[in-house]
Amino acid sequence: MVVATNTTSIRSEKIRHIELPIIDLKAEKSEVVKKIVKACEEFGFFKVINHGVPSDVISRMEEEGKEFFAKPVCEKQQAGPANPYGYGSKNIGIMGDQGEVEYILLQTNPLGISEKTQRISTDPMKFRYAVTSYIEAVREVACEILELISEGLGVPLDTSVLSRLIRDVESDSVFRLNHYPPLKDSNKNTSASSFHHHENQNSTSNCNSNNRVIGFGEHTDPQILTLLTSNDVGGLQISLEDGVWIPVNPQPISSFCVFVGDVLEAMTNGRFPSVRHRVIVNRVEARMSMALFASPPLHAKISPIPELLSGNNKKLFRSFTWAEYKKTTYANRLGERRLSFFMILEDEEC
Ligand SMILES: C=C1C[C@]23C[C@@]1(O)CC[C@H]2[C@@]12CC[C@H](O)[C@@](C)(C(=O)O1)[C@H]2[C@@H]3C(=O)O
Ligand SMILES: O=C(O)CCC(=O)C(=O)O
Ligand SMILES: [Fe+2]
């Protein structure tokens, strides 16, 4: 039984260690397509290697993140509050969700980036270059994966049906840097740890040695696809069935984790379920992750891909715009199954 409380500590639950799929994007194409489809159906999750994002692009972004999170809190706060874009600590979203995490949320369009970088780094040009080249390179991988997915779903005549949503200049994609300081830091008043000094003492006092402390509570990502990479500190877990959690090893270190988001679940009419995941805080080392949430433009209409509605396949979700979905997302708690608000009921016309 899972006993998840608001205080971010968890008592008894099941953990299962299984090998999650690692897909080599440079392998033979038809094999890659098959493996991606299988992983999306089975887990809504896989890792990719040989993705083509240069290692210096990743390490440059990682350095910028490290530099930012090492600053004193008052300097980090110069980035402005995380809602809608900026620096956040402990509060995730506007609905009162809490986690032992600090983060930066950024828009991915050039204007959004340059507006924020002035407040994030003492060398805004350097920061902007790192973010822009990272986002561009990772977006390309997301597009490649979405094109492989379209092929695997049997829409060979229009393999850009998904990727064009995120290539669109008006794509509402978001970039997020997450930093989870280790629990042992909670007694030190260093710049990297002071942001959670008081609260962490409360949450750790609720834990015995078996208890885990939640960095990022369980949720699905609302967008199409998320591409995430981290340093070599684990903590990410995905869930397949209620109450069973599967730890995601951060290795291979140059890989990207790929998460199916709610919009992809809707567009595949439920064939690729969005994956529930969470982060457990490491007791000794800091985890840092960098996630690109590939989203459609706000006005884009989301409906199941017509090819997936043939035969007995009934339309499961009503059509919605990304703006409508995003509004519902932000009006609900982190762990909510928000797609259920868009499900077509048995006797309902669509
Ligand atoms: C509590 C919330 C934070 C979140 C918006 C929400 O209302 C529910 C979903 C959350 C999430 C999870 C994935 C991404 O990290 C995120 C940026 C997103 O699009 O949805 C966050 C939102 C957030 O932190 O603002
Ligand atoms: O830090 C991680 O590994 C996961 C973060 C996450 O799920 C998110 O930012 O939505
Ligand atoms: Fe997530």
TrEMBL record:
Pfam families attached to this UniProt entry: 2OG-FeII_Oxy, DIOX_N
SUPFAM superfamilies: Clavaminate synthase-like (SSF51197)
GO function terms (MF aspect): gibberellin 2-beta-dioxygenase activity; metal ion binding
EC identifiers of the protein: 1.14.11.13
UniProt-listed InterPro entries: DIOX_N (IPR026992), IPNS-like_FE2OG_OXY (IPR044861), IPNS-like_sf (IPR027443), Iron_ascorbate_oxido_reductase (IPR050231), Oxoglu/Fe-dep_dioxygenase_dom (IPR005123)
Signal peptide: none
Residue ranges of the region described as Disordered: 186-207
Catalytic reaction list: gibberellin A1 + 2-oxoglutarate + O2 = gibberellin A8 + succinate + CO2
Domain Fe2OG dioxygenase: 170-296
Similarity comment: Belongs to the iron/ascorbate-dependent oxidoreductase family. GA2OX subfamily.
Protein name (Swiss-Prot/TrEMBL): gibberellin 2beta-dioxygenase
